[in-house]
Amino acid sequence: MRIKDKWLLRGMGILRSIASKGIWITLPVGKHTGFGIYNKNKVIAGNQRENTERFEEHLADVALDGGFIEHQERMQDMKLGAYPLSFCGCETIAVYNAMSHLNPEGGFFKALPSIITYFEKRGVALAGEFGIDPRSLSSYFDELGYRTYMTMNQQETLRIIKTTDVYIMTFYNNRKRLSDMIHTVCITKGKDGRLRAHNAGTKESYLNLQEMMRNLGVKGKAEMICFLGIRKPKA
């Protein structure tokens, strides 16, 4: 693991540990954030009610996009922790998109609010301003009986892509400047073997992960942090 990845993930783990307590703290680290103290359980309960109601208004867009959420920026009216989903919700959206791909019959079509609640209780960093610790994403699938495989080694991704059904990748938008933030996307593989990233600002498909990385984030500067493969349980 590269040093910067090690420290990033260690930091996310610390923030996740802080968030596991009964009180959430937010810090002034950007234009969307400020100092605040919140009752964790009260915020989660309020978010669950409001997110369930407001997600109904997004379902038409999701249906038009084949059951995937492709426009995180439109979800200012939903929340993860103390912040708009449009700002910090990419991990929960990636989980939703992966479940949509794994369940094309529509069983998880309305599941986004419950996915948000799950990670608010288990994986959120601080009160959501840093999103979700990417290492916590596999637990959601594990509890539902899926097999998961995570790596931080790009060479290992080739094996995972061949042996699993859908993927979630966290990456630096700009490997040279952390202030450009990180992003997490669901990646699906078409019948032709080409890869497509969802909620990535493009509907292009790519021959392989290397070609995809050249077109994500700040073009030519994106860099993978970790890669999760999910496989359906055997019947």
Q: Which descriptors would you attach to this protein?
A:
9 helices; two-stranded antiparallel ribbon; 5-stranded antiparallel β-sheet; 19% strand; alpha+beta; 235 residues
SSE layout:
Elements: H1 3-19, E1 23-26, E2 36-39, H2 40-55, H3 59-64, E3 79-80, E4 83-84, H4 85-88, H5 90-102, H6 112-122, H7 137-143, E5 147-151, H8 154-163, E6 166-172, E7 182-189, E8 195-198, H9 209-213, E9 223-231
Antiparallel strand pairs: 1-2, 3-4, 5-9, 6-7, 6-9, 7-8
Helix pairs in contact: 2-6, 5-6
Overview of this protein structure:
The chain is an alpha+beta fold. Helix content is 38%, strand content 19%. The protein contains nine helices and nine strands. It has helices at 3-19, 40-55, 59-64, 85-88, 90-102, 112-122, 137-143, 154-163, 209-213, and strands spanning 23-26, 36-39, 79-80, 83-84, 147-151, 166-172, 182-189, 195-198, 223-231. A hairpin with a 5-residue loop joins strand 7 and strand 8 (195-198). The chain is globular and about 50 Å long. The chain starts with a helix and ends with a strand. The relative contact order is 0.15. The model has no long low-confidence stretch (mean pLDDT 90).
Order of helices and strands: HEEHHEEHHHHEHEEEHE
Strand order of the largest sheet: 5-9-6-7-8
Strand content: 15-25%
Cα gyration radius (Å): 17 Å
Helix content: 25-40%
Distance between the termini: 35 Å
Annotation, overall tally of beta strands = 9
Query: From the structure provided, what is the oligomeric state, counting identical versus distinct chains?
Result: single chain
Average residue-wise pLDDT: 90
| Overall shape | globular
Regions with little confidence, pLDDT below 50 for 5+ residues: none
Largest sheet: 5 strands, antiparallel
Query: What structural class results from the helix and strand content?
Result: alpha+beta
Q: Number of helix segments?
A: 9
